[in-house]
Give the backbone structure.
Amino acid sequence: MALSYRPASASLFEPLWAIEQAAHPYPWSESLLRSCLTAPYWGEVACTETPVGFYLFQQVLDEVTLMNICVDPVHQGQGWGQALLERALMRARAAEARRCFLEVRASNVAALALYRKVGFVEDVRRKGYYPCSEGREDAVLMSCTL
């Protein structure tokens, strides 16, 4: 099945909220997701017949921060995460961004491998940044040149 893309917007909040909650052990709050579906944030929703994933950016001049990217767990393992990330980076380049930043949980080995595969490098770690079942875990800050 092929993916199509639609601009991320507040009108798509409900399916994106469902994906966010299903995809992350510690999902964003409802208010944070809602706020990132309005300017100055931007992104896209990947769809088959229904939304299956999304990404959201914040752009400041020629830099973007990948605020969130996720694929519904029902659709993971099909290469759609990589397709969505590559699409996101292509759109960032089209928006004249020259560098992309992100942060990810140190325990998210699948995401770390994907980010490295498409050219991200680790810049620094924030020790004990995220809550987890064992207390706290590091955030890995990464970047790539676009």
In short: The chain is about 30% helix and 40% strand. Residues 3 and 83 are 9 Å apart (CA to CA). Residues 80-94 form the longest helix (15 residues). The chain has a mean pLDDT of 95.
